[in-house]
Amino acid sequence: HDIKTCYQVTKIVLEETFYQLSNSNVQLEGIILKPNMILNGSESKIKNETKQVAEMTLSCLKENVPKEVPGIAFLSGGQNELEATRNLNEINKINDTKFIMTYSYGRALQQAALKFWSKDTSNISGTQDIFNHRANMCSLAAQGKWSEELEKK
Predict the structure, then answer these.
(1) What is the DSSP letter of 98?
(2) What whole-number distance in Å separates Cα of residue 38 and Cα of residue 58?
(3) Which of 56, 68, 113, 148 shows a CA-CA span of 20 to 30 A to 96?
(4) CA 116, CA 39: separation in Å to the nearest integer?
(5) How confident is the prediction along the chain (153 residues), in pLDDT tens digits per residue?
(6) If 0-12 CB within 10 Å is exposed, 13-18 middle and 19+ buried, where does residue 144 land?
(7) Sign of CA dihedral 8, 60, 22, 100
(8) Which residues are catalytic?
(9) Which alpha helices (DSSP H) does the chain contain, by range?
């Protein structure tokens, strides 16, 4: 699928989610939403452009998530670690909402450390260093303070 299809499907899912939460009298001030970013499907072979991902993701959230929701923790959704970090950073740079935008990454947080560790399971400190770097980069992106230069350090 393309990015526009992702937007439309995400919109439908968010509308239904908040309809059901409302019917169940859930206090939205006490939830954290864990959505996908708006992306082209991985099998579409269409390259995701960071600016477009950020703009469309933020637009979809602004249109479909009630303002009472305090936080949004993105899933990496198959993105590699750099894509997920870059996209989260751009979202936070343009975030003009009260939503706190952070991450709930699995693969994009652990992938590099697991790959390193699989080559030498005795090198625990090296594995921890790689994981700590990735966590630091994601934390910077959650503040809109990440950069390619920081990534290389």
Answers:
(1) S
(2) 9
(3) 148
(4) 28
(5) 999 999 999 999 999 999 999 999 999 999 999 999 999 998 898 999 999 999 999 999 999 999 999 999 999 988 999 999 999 999 999 999 999 999 999 889 999 999 999 999 999 999 999 999 999 999 999 999 999 999 987
(6) middle
(7) positive
(8) 34
(9) 3-23, 50-64, 81-94, 107-119, 124-141, 148-152
